[in-house]
Structures are given as structure tokens and as C-alpha cells.
Structure prediction request, 226 residues.
Amino acid sequence: MVGTTPADRVLSTSDGRTIRLAELRGRPLIVSFVYTGCTQVCPAATQFLAGAVAEARRAVGPDSFTALTIGFNLPFDNPQAMRSFARSHGIDGPGWIAASPAAADVDALVRDFGFSYVATPAGFDHIEQVTIVDGGGRIVRQVYGDSFALPMLIDPLKALASGAPLPAGGGLAAIAERVRVWCTVYDPALGRYRFDYGLVIELVAGATILGGTLAYLASGRRRRGT
Prediction:
């Protein structure tokens, strides 16, 4: 979903207001999704994100971006439930909005942001994801995991705030993060997402075969050239 602009949708905030996504344009926005009935992953991920946002505000400026946490389990994630969740997990301060979409908009909203979830007997399994949106409303970066290296969040925000080109996101850490995301799959037998080492083996084997093939073709061209 990087490079796309989510549709403008109405949200009900935890403090009783109604806003549209388009109203949040003008400065960068970071978006996360939770369900308030979660007792482990969502609270832990939200508390980590709260610390990351605090560090980003110190690095980039206290008013340089807005944070938005959206509840996706309607009708239970109503504004009152989101207000309680925000207070319990330290995201009820200035510059952070906790909100609920209309129930009819949930599927389209999560799809626009590239977020996904699966209902389970215990609640939901879902991707842990933070979406970075630029001032024009366009998604520019996805950060995955219930914890992550702080530069993955802060560096894009610094670039957006300064008008500099976004960091390319290269290097071993970025490659490892992409592999982790590609190889995390939903296991219906376990009722949760898990890291599939078999996919890693397939990726390595495929890269090895591709590298060998390219090397063979290159040596063949050199032999024909002599």
C-alpha cells in the first residue's frame, strides 16, 4: 500500500468529536490499529509505540506529526472503549488521537492501510503495523512488529519534516525486516501468526539457484567473447 492515499473516511474520536482523515493532512501522520479487548499484544505494542513516539517528538519536534490509533473491532471499539484504552496505555496526550470508524467502513479502511486481521476463538490475530503517512495523505512507509529499531520510525519522520528525500531503507537491518515480514504466515492450527523457516530456506535456495544461473550465463558470454 506504500504510495497510495487512503480514502477519506469519518472517525469518531475518544473525546467525542467527529473528524475526517483528510482533516489530518498537512503534516505527517502515523497510524496504528488495535482492538480494545486485547490483553497482551495490543497493549504491549501500543506501549512500545508510545515510547517510540515520545522519542520521535524529541528528535523531530513535539508538533511535527500526529499519531492516530484506530479500533477495528466494531461495535466494541467504540469511542468510550478507545478512551479507556488510550488512558490505560499512555496515548491520551496531545497530538495523539484514539478513534473508531463506522462499522461499515472497517473492511475498506484496513484494506486502504494494508492492515489485516483474522478472528480467532480468543479474539483476533493481526499484523503489528505502524503506517507513516505524509502531509498529503500518501502512505510512505510501513513499519512492522510489536517492537522495532527506532530509526525505522524516526528517520522517515525526520525526512518528511525537513522536506528531504525519504531514506531508502537499505542495509542489512531493512533486508532482515523484509524477510521477517515475508516469512510470517498465519497458521490456522495454532490460531496465530508464526515465522515460517521453510520459506526462509526456499528464499535462500532460490537466491542460490538464481545466482548460480546468472554466474553460468556470464561465464558463457565471456567464453564466447574470447
The chain is about 40% helix and 25% strand.
